[in-house]
TrEMBL record, chains A, B:
Segments for region (Disordered): 1-20, 195-217
Name of the protein: Pyridoxamine 5'-phosphate oxidase family protein
Pfam families assigned to the protein according to its UniProt record, in alphabetical order: Pyridox_ox_2 (PF12900)
Gene3D superfamilies for this protein: Electron Transport, Fmn-binding Protein, Chain A (2.30.110.10)
Organism of origin: Naumannella cuiyingiana
Cited SUPFAM superfamilies: FMN-binding split barrel
InterPro entries in alphabetical order: Pyridox_Oxase-rel (IPR024747), Split_barrel_FMN-bd (IPR012349)
Superkingdom per UniProt: Bacteria
Amino acid sequence: MTMTTDHLTTLHRKPDRGRTDRAELDAVLDAMLVGTLATVVDGEPWAVPMLYARHGDHILLHGSTGAGALRHVGAGAPAAFTVARIDGVVLADHLFDHSANYRSAVVRGNLEVVGEDEEWDALIALSERLVPGRPAEVVDMTRKDRAATLTLRLPIRDGRWIVKVRDAGAGPAGRDPSAWRGVVPLAEVWGDPVPETDLAPGVEAPASVQGLRGARS
Amino acid sequence: MTMTTDHLTTLHRKPDRGRTDRAELDAVLDAMLVGTLATVVDGEPWAVPMLYARHGDHILLHGSTGAGALRHVGAGAPAAFTVARIDGVVLADHLFDHSANYRSAVVRGNLEVVGEDEEWDALIALSERLVPGRPAEVVDMTRKDRAATLTLRLPIRDGRWIVKVRDAGAGPAGRDPSAWRGVVPLAEVWGDPVPETDLAPGVEAPASVQGLRGARS
């Protein structure tokens, strides 16, 4: 039942679960909505969950310009961004070999502040990740909105990331061939949209909302 | 669309989303299976996703005794453990106010190695978290299994954790009252069990597997 540990970006444990193709990193990053940004503040670990979007060779993050810690990491501090999702539990025929199917990634680097010339595109990319198609449906951000937003990006550089995936069954019978073995999948599934009760008459759920159905891959 | 940042355990941004009741921390920790353990190695941030279980006043973690980084954090290094789950996307009538419903927690402290006298209980608690009821159904761990496992725990101490929850609608109409506003919920849902194809004849899915149905809270 071990989802073990990597020392920085070197894969010491269970190297068969490591993936080295950049496309696999992108697939894992693009499958999730939230990750954990970790950095070091006064020698102590600091970590915070954040929405994000991969956009080309960057992980985009954003927050309020009033958030002191974001300004700190925005100033070039080394950071590690982690995502993980459990895709199922794996039942073996004895306790020690129980496990989980999962996808995870850690990207290391130094955060950069996204400058004004690129910030608009970055914020749209973040919005598209959360609700695809929504930016084109609604009133856009204003300059004032943008001024209140600190947008950061973490470059995805060769040798500075690690991806691990387990996507397999329980394996052959072990200590008790009479026991059930197998996988119970766990998926992220969209529920029915919940409109605000005070919508203007006749306002229907737009295409972006209609698109959020079924399981997220 | 901002899920902002906390400087260490102090809640500077959107304090209305912070929860101070220990029971709310436990509820958030107990709702998830995977988190991110962050620490500092040679002055650099280090982070890895890990399965975990809250067990009383501790967060339990485990890995292989062969994992060097786990030994490092086990030796008392300061750590931050983060969990986060997106419960839905929140659509406003203009882009800037889009958001997400979520539950998140960060617990800070110094990891301890769980000693032999308590390790058995800790490993059972971890297994129960992943698949409730499974430990009683299958062949137990051996002493050798346990010797191959490094079990760590992070104490949950007053003032060293932060919980944030957003669980609300889109709020009142803003810049465009003609636009749809509302929430699209996102849930974790168990799929149908997938047995190994070589099970002995007549082996049925046990109670633990039958219990993994529907949405996880």
